[in-house]
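User: I'm putting together notes for a lab meeting next week and I want to include a structural view of one of the chains we've been expressing. I don't have a solved structure, so I'd like a prediction I can at least talk through. The sequence is below, exactly as it appears in our construct file.
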Amino acid sequence: MIIFSSCTEQSLTENNFIGAWTSVDKVTPYKAILTISSDSSFGFNFGACQSRGYSKGTWRLVDSSIILNSSETDSCYYVDEFGMHCYDITDTSHWGMKTHKDCDATLEMFYTIFSDDQFEIRNDSLYHIEELNNNCPDIKGMEDIFTRKKN
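Assistant: Thanks for the context. Below is the predicted structure for the 151-residue chain, given as structure tokens.
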């Protein structure tokens, strides 16, 4: 008797991504929830030490990953970029960025910008795919990884 076996990569669909995802523990105090909705929208909320923030926007499926992009907001917040970004210590160009140039933002809440941020599923977890040229050292424990939120 001859048995043929084939190992094929399972194709992911939109349904694999839809739902609430919660961040895994990092080396710093941080918790986030990323909610992927079936209408191609997403919501994001985070809290870390003395800061918190949110984002909302749209997503699209590309091959076996999703790409997230934030929507513009009418409210006034300081802006932070999603993911790990390492800057030269003399580069202050990103300091004080706001959702609207001349608005009066407070440090109580940030608006997190997702700009073509890519995520893929590996072993039932959702991984943020960092750009290869992000100038960051390989810092273990700071990766953006999410698991399905348990009710």
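A couple of points you could mention at the meeting. The CA atoms of residues 72 and 96 lie 17 Å apart. The two ends are 47 Å apart (CA to CA).

User: Perfect, that's what I needed.
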